[in-house]
Amino acid sequence: ENTQLKDIVAHAKEYGFVFPSSEIYDGLAAVYDYGPNGVELKNNLKQLWWRAMTQLNANVVGIDAAIFMHPLTWKASGHVDGFNDPLIDNLDSKKRYRADVLIEDKAAELAKQGDQAGADILLADMGRLLTAEDLAGVRQLIIDYKIMCPVSGTCNWTDVRQFNLMYSTQGSAVEGDAAQIYLRPETAQGIFVNFLNVQKSARMKVPFGIAQIGKAFRNEIVARQFIFRMREFEQMEMQFFIRPGTEMEWYNKWKETRHRWHQAVGLPTDKLRFHDHDKLAHYANAAVDIEYEFPFGFKEIEGIHSRTDFDLTQHQALSRKKQQYFDNDLDPETGKPYGNYVPYVVETSVGADRLFLATLCQAYTEETITEGEGEKEQTKTRTFLKLHPALAPVKAAIFPLVKKDGMPEKAQAIFEELRHDFRLLIEDKDAIGKRYTRQDLIGTPFCIVVDGQTMEDDTVTVRHRDSREQTRMPIAELRNYIGEAVSF
Ligand code: ATP
């Protein structure tokens, strides 16, 4: 219950899930690398999402678009002009902050002190000022509320200025204004610009979706909370193209579908909640976040947005290429085909890294157990990752009880028999108890022990991570047994 983020960060590093980027050079802020267990867990999450989208839905197909796109893409999407964070510097501490985050933190502080009404007023004021792009007003709020202001002393702030979050680089083959190219800040636009290519080549009929997993980049100034907010991260996005006027129906459908999926991968209902956006982005007519309760509070893991025809209409205007679909279904009111229109879009957008962090936080379990009997009885804390077996980096570890009597060879034979179906490993060092502990720490659901009896009757014990119970079974049953548990 009292798991803190620092426990998760330490665990993630120690057991090969997540390392700070270029750590030998003291790291790079808000950039992280995935280690041997981390990459397996992340791949498993991505694969489950991919399957949930493109395999379980006959009307959703995938693409893999490039990170670099024509610069006009970002003009059309609104990112060049509008993808900004309001920044402010404190001249005393010489530290840079996001003005909106300072104000949100202050509101959270007020709410914590019991002044919910005051918190609401502050947030509403901020929303109004940001919408009106009244940056001087935002600065004044920070001053009026004495944010970060020592009791006796000054709080000396610079002006608030808009800072674009896109990373840009030179090197485009395009001349002039368009010479600057960007690292994509979201994967969605790669889907929009390919809307007609996909619709035609895969002969899709509206309603249909396009799914994509890929890297996105944002120059986040406030880098906090480990892999929750990174500068290079991965998104799993799906744009669902629909007939105008049907958006609320699809919005609600995807909202429920995605909520259920998060529960299926192991995030419990009571740790998930919906958070409707009060302030809608320029492209949306409805938006909701699915939030998970991290050790640092409820935070967004996925956004579901009704994006209207904003993106396709914008691309149509800037590219001068029609982004229309001919719908030959009959409109029951007129009895005629719906005809040509620019489809509306409902999007589901989840961060693979945030989902990874939520999964890790949820799986991290500390329990008090009693071991041994009589005089030898002792209580200790057992730490293990209670991952859904489908997500576990290693599905089963095989332990020859001792390194002799044919047991290592038997373990090797089991490995070879099952390695095409599951990711396994053989562990022959240390006492069995220690080996169990090591597997618990990385969330391996099964440990298979090869012992003296195995050499006689080809049975093994299977030890279960969560219950620590052991079952004896024939080697020949392992494939089905593990297969059933790890299926999703
Ligand atoms: P936030 O408000 O936390 O910055 P956002 O609303 O800007 O997020 P979207 O643009 O809706 O996020 O992106 C969709 C998803 O991408 C988010 O739900 C989140 O899981 C993920 N995501 C966005 N920014 C980051 C980031 N900097 N690091 C990791 N994941 C991110």
From TrEMBL:
Binding site for ATP: 218-220, 228-233, 300-301, 351-354
Entry keywords, A to Z: Aminoacyl-tRNA synthetase, ATP-binding, Cytoplasm, Ligase, Nucleotide-binding, Protein biosynthesis
GO cellular component: cytoplasm; extracellular exosome; microvesicle
Keyword Glycosyltransferase on entry: no
Assigned EC number: 6.1.1.14
Positions with a binding annotation for substrate: 98, 186, 233-237, 347-351
Keyword Membrane found: no
Molecular function GO labels: ATP binding; bis(5'-nucleosyl)-tetraphosphatase (asymmetrical) activity; glycine-tRNA ligase activity
Catalytic activity field: tRNA(Gly) + glycine + ATP = glycyl-tRNA(Gly) + AMP + diphosphate
Pfam families in alphabetical order: HGTP_anticodon, tRNA-synt_2b
Cross-referenced PROSITE patterns: AA_TRNA_LIGASE_II (PS50862)
Localization per Swiss-Prot or TrEMBL: Cytoplasm
UniProt cross-references to CDD domains, sorted A to Z: GlyRS-like_core
Residue ranges occupied by any Aminoacyl-transfer RNA synthetases class-II family profile domain in the UniProt entry: 7-393
GO terms for biological process, alphabetical: diadenosine tetraphosphate biosynthetic process; glycyl-tRNA aminoacylation
Quaternary structure (record): Homodimer.
Task performed by this protein: Catalyzes the attachment of glycine to tRNA(Gly).
Protein family: Belongs to the class-II aminoacyl-tRNA synthetase family.
Protein name (Swiss-Prot/TrEMBL): Glycine--tRNA ligase
Organism: Hymenobacter crusticola
Name of the gene encoding the protein in the UniProt record: glyQS
